[in-house]
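step=predict obj=Glycerol-3-phosphate dehydrogenase/oxidase n=570
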Amino acid sequence: MSPADAAGAENPAGRLAAMAGTGEVDVVILGAGINGAGLFRDLCAQGVSCLIVDKADFGSGTSAAPSRLIHGGLKYLETGEFGLVAQSTLERNLLLQNAPHYVSPLPTVIPIFSWSKGMLAALRTLFGSTSAPRSRGAILIKIGLMIYDFYGSRNQVMPRHRMVGRRQALSEMPALNPSIVATGTYYDAKISHPERLVLELILDGLQSNAASASTNYTALVTSANGVLTFQPENGVAFSVRPKLVVNAAGPWIDDVNALLGAPSKMIGGTKGSHILLKHDELVKSLAGRMLYFEADDGRICLVYDYLGLALVGSTDIKADNPDAVRCEPDEVEYLLESVRTLLPGMTFERARIVYAYSGIRPLPASDASLPGLISRDHSAPVAESDRDRPFAVISLVGGKWTTFRGFAEEVANATLDRLRRSRKVTTQSMPIGGGKDFPANAAARTDWLARARQETGIEERRLDQLLSRYGTRALEIARHGLDGEGHLPDTDGYSRSEIDYIVRNEFVEHLADVIMRRSTLAIGGSLTSRDLQEIAVITGRALGWSAKRIAREVEAAVVELEGRNLMRLD
């Protein structure tokens, strides 16, 4: 596979122009978050011509604001969503196999403060109560973890749970609140680069189907007489006539359906905010584990090591304006107070925050009194074609990061039925992006690094860094300029040629795309003003920006980072 093929950049503008020239396409997917991207890859692999469009960047909405977990949904047992737990644990196990460059096991510790509390409340919730269980005791948690292990036994790749008493728990993690009576430990998984996984799904789809195309920063302008007209941010408007439209716009679904002539009221989203703390003492105490715990109001919170920072989340507040979402001061205090209560021997001040982010979960409209009780399951309601709209519209409602592949498979099968086609391949064992041929163990990794060093002449430490960041696509990036242009001024983890590769091959339109989604420079807290300026120059050189455009991009990035992400650039 050539670098151009792998990057999906074999003249993307040409692909789009060719599609617009004929005006014909099987399926248009509106929204390039995780659900839209997963469906795009699946349909492309079946030989269906697809156009995926996003009004902003790929993976820049809700899909960029998760807890960065790939989990089976332990808490869904309380609401009786056993089918969702079964699917989630299976999909978690599959992602550990198909995306090993980004998804890895995460030992998870539940601090327990009583032996028997919560049993009656859990039964009431199971049978439809609108009040969440509080003070879940050891007996209830033991039962839950046994059921969770049972559901996770398909394609099992991680150990089963264990429980220990207070003395052993405090010896293993002395910082915990000493009032605990026990802890339970089970295994879920985390994802290091969720925004890049979205991009890789799109690249995989393009690589498998030359008749498909993708475009970001492109708005749907009109829908009339079966024709969709789009306006790129920087380009000429174009139109296509699809046989079917999939609305994967997440929290914007109802807005998009109104434009399509299929008005709906499907979404009743909730807001989730997270903060990342520079807290070396806490990260050391966690030792690679996640604490999954109950806040004072009964909501579930978590804290774990993400890129050397302590990621704390999340809030769960009813909200419906995804364009203005940000982590508010009261949410910050709520998250800080939650970890103060759990870890009373440590200090947690706002000054430790290096980054914050927030997003709207596109959950189904619900009258549940508590946001945490709104189902995280998914559905795909259909607005059938009519006289004014000759194509049907399938809306992807709800869902969660972990189950995107299974959701995509369900919708792809329904789409194939409508197009009177059959499935050619399954995505169940299909590697994603740089997960293809990823070294399966330490010995295989050593061999891969040795071969890559022989081919490129780059030291193995650097190649190992690239392998963790891009999977097996690391070799293409290492070859790009042979990594010979030096590192950024203040960050030795990213080279100038690496940034140049990203800009030229990964659909970058704005500076924020590079620092917030194609890399972890912003969320990892390592970005400086000097690095930002250097990245802007590299990006501008590759994309032909003027000095004024470069200055505008820097200013816009700073406003977003400082205003929405609470980041202080040095």
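step=describe
The longest strand covers residues 103-112.
step=end
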